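Pinned message: reference record for GNAT superfamily N-acetyltransferase
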Amino acid sequence: MSERRLRIERVEVDDPRAAALRGILDADLDERYRDADDGEAPAFAAKREAALAVHPEQVVATLLAVDADGTPLGHVILRRLGDEWELKRLVVVGSARRRGVGRALTAEVVDLARRGGAARVILQSGRMQPESLRLYAAVGFTPIAVYEPYVETMPSSLCFEYVL
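Predicted structure (tokens):
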């Protein structure tokens, strides 16, 4: 995808296009991790849901990647997690994968965090997301220990940092 055909837009977290892309991500993650959740106690599932929640007051930026026609291709959130800056909810629609959308969104998050004074950007992922893991490694994220709020409910998470 040529750079002039891809545009990054900063939108409100409740933008309907952003919400629709997060819905696509949720469905994809539900499918990928379905077997891992079998037999889980409802209270534990609720704790995990709370750990994954992104509250609007934490959001520094919600970004959409759109094509020349304005069609949403991808989404990401940069949030403050205590003193940390975290990349959350990165999704690229299937038809736009391997076209630089994820790289462009990730680069914009890193740039925003750098301009905001962050020391690093962190993120949490999992083994059932190999495409994401390849992207993070390719753009310079390196593995770190699982961090809060994921330690108790997702101790086998794969977490990364990008030092600024």
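Pinned by admin. Summary line: Residues 16-33 form the longest helix (18 residues).
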